[in-house]
Design brief:
This protein has 361 residues and is of the alpha+beta class. The protein is built from six helices and ten strands; from the N terminus they run αβββαβββββββαααα. It is 34% helix and 30% strand. The strands form two sheets. It has a six-stranded mixed β-sheet. The chain has a four-stranded antiparallel β-sheet with strand order 4-7-10-9, with no helix packed on it.
Length: 361
């Protein structure tokens, strides 16, 4: 009966995990731990080993990024994780080789309350972690595997100076909340950190995922903690901003250059220049909802400011030329037109190239 019960539990758990993610082919053996190093204390707050840390191996797969808030430096994501460690105190006699006890859902939560665990969580968590599903498996030699599917809202710094040509790094920081590195040592399972290829972000392209083990400390405390930082690099898809924002703005500015090709008539030139200026202002308001609301200058905000100043320059040159004409310089308008037809567009293009070098170089 016990064998049938374990077989049925295995079927249930496999079906459950199959809906989540492919299981990592990773094995650790707990039989090699000397009995002299196994703790004789059985309390929930007592680590499994004495005089050496318990090694916790991590597998982490980002299944979906559901939201990126660059203004507040936050992002939401969903992930599938697996944690492995040895607790020989949980070992049991097995009638069948490799027999494993499995606990799913509420059973897993209840089982967790009665055993030691490394108490891992996210250092950069902003709001509560939502655990969608989880299960525990305990092998006869005391190998424990905790796996689950969860979502969280985390804080991450964003640098938008290159916007919209920017790349960002979404940081997930995993650390024990209780146990320092002399009790819990974290390791990354080789090849077991990644991102699903089945989801896409409308504005971003996932460039890759990296992970490394670091050392963290708590303020003035002398205790140090192992910390695993998983960074998902994303590149912004720039097409929308090029074709829907930058190109129309450049065409509007190019329209302002036509004033130098209009025959004499200050009123007509000023009217056209004023229309272009109002169009740019209205265009800025139209784009406001799509632009990051930050205090420092970005590549795109510098481009918009330059475009506005070029139109102001065109209006200023026209106004000065016609005032000089009224003062008696009859050919000033014609001379300024000949120069500005090529000089101001050249300045505009040169400043765009210089800005690209400064912000993107």
């Amino acid at each position: 009966m016990r064998a049938w019960a374990n077989w049925l539990s295995a079927v249930v758990v496999c079906c459950f995990v199959g809906q989540l993610h492919a299981e990592y082919a990773y094995e650790i053996s707990c039989d090699e731990i000397p009995k002299s190093e196994i703790s004789t204390k059985l309390g929930v707050g007592d680590p499994p080993l004495e005089n050496r840390p318990t090694i916790v191996d991590l597998a982490f797969n980002v299944t979906e990024i559901t939201g990126i808030d660059v203004r507040n430096g936050r992002f939401q994501f969903q992930a599938y994780t697996e944690f492995y460690w040895c607790d020989p105190r949980e070992a049991f006699d097995s009638a069948l080789p490799g027999e494993t006890q499995m606990f799913v859902g509420s059973q897993a939560l209840k089982r967790q309350e009665g055993m030691w665990n490394p108490d891992l969580s996210f250092v950069n968590e902003v709001s509560g972690i939502e655990v969608r599903r989880r299960d525990y498996s305990i092998r006869h030699d005391g190998r424990i595997r905790l796996r689950g599917y969860f979502s969280a809202n985390l804080a991450s710094g964003f640098d938008l100076r290159r916007f919209p040509f920017d790349s960002q790094s979404l940081s997930v920081q995993v650390r024990s909340l209780t146990w320092p590195d002399d009790v819990v040592q974290l390791r990354i399972i080789p090849g077991a950190v990644g991102v699903d290829q089945d989801f896409e972000l409308a504005e971003w392209a996932v460039a890759g995922v990296t992970a490394e083990v670091q050392t963290d400390s708590l303020g003035a405390s002398d205790a140090h903690f192992d910390l695993i930082e998983i960074r998902t690099t994303i590149d912004r898809r720039v097409g929308y901003y090029l074709w829907k924002a930058a190109l129309p703005l450049m065409l509007i500015v190019a329209l302002s250059f036509t004033v130098f090709w209009i025959p004499d008539g200050l009123a007509t030139r000023i009217r056209l220049s004023a229309t272009v200026m109002l169009t740019i202002v209205a265009y800025q308001f139209a784009l406001a909802s799509d632009l990051p609301k930050i205090a420092y200058m970005t590549a795109f905000s510098a481009f918009m400011t330059l475009s506005f100043l070029i139109v102001v320059l065109s209006v200023t040159v026209n106004t000065i030329a016609f005032y000089r004409q009224k003062a008696g310089d009859e050919s000033i308008v014609e001379r300024s037109d000949l120069v500005c037809r090529w000089f101001i567009p050249t300045v505009y293009i040169t400043m765009i190239a210089l800005g690209a070098y400064i912000f993107l170089g």
